[in-house]
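Hi U.,

Before I forget, here's the chain from the pilot set. I'm dumping it here mostly so it's searchable later in email.
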Amino acid sequence: MKKHLAVSILAGAIALQCVPGHAAPTTVYTTVEDFGGSHQGSGWSGNTAVPSAAWDYDGSSINGQANATPGGAGTAGSLAINPTGTTLNWTLLDEQYVGSFASAILSFNPGYSGGNLPAMTGTMTYIYTLPDNAGGGAGSYVTPMMGFNMTGYWNMWDATSSDYLGIVGGKETYRANFTYSIPATIGLGYFNLMIGMNTDYAPIETFYIDDIQVEVVPEPTSMSMLGLGAVTLLLARRSRNSR
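Structure:
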């Protein structure tokens, strides 16, 4: 019986190693002050990106991890994209310099230390309002984008999916979902988050981005340690109960 129990526990521990684990989501940008930190503020199509209290999705006035005072009091708001009426195509809407604050880098890669990054994967979401197409007429697609501009590396990804959230504050609102990967880097000099959009719309009205959240996927070795810890604990309890 004891042998069978040990085998069952070990099998459960191995299964734990095979199940992807996730840390709790971390809010990186949500308040006017978050978006008002260091950022490029303009895109390749001539649009401008500025923090604004004119529209907000989550009502949060608690600063995110990109803020100099994360968890402090801020102003509920978002990042307002003011377009020029030209077709956006593949455009960078804004580049957030999250490298300004170590806590923001740690949101994307908890292994960051002393300028060095281990390889890391995770998921990111942000809320966006659908751009109007008044200037384009025949636009047919809108694909949110995100990526990183960091020492020795530059990449952007399309959203894996977008969830419709309804009409919020008079705007058609969606949540964009992304999967990202960060390569191992030694001697990191800068680490910037980029947000953008691939679309053939030509908006003339302001649209918004809010509530950027990150969720890190733990490395397999972390899950392995969790599984082995469970084995040790359960076997110890079994041993005590059998005395």
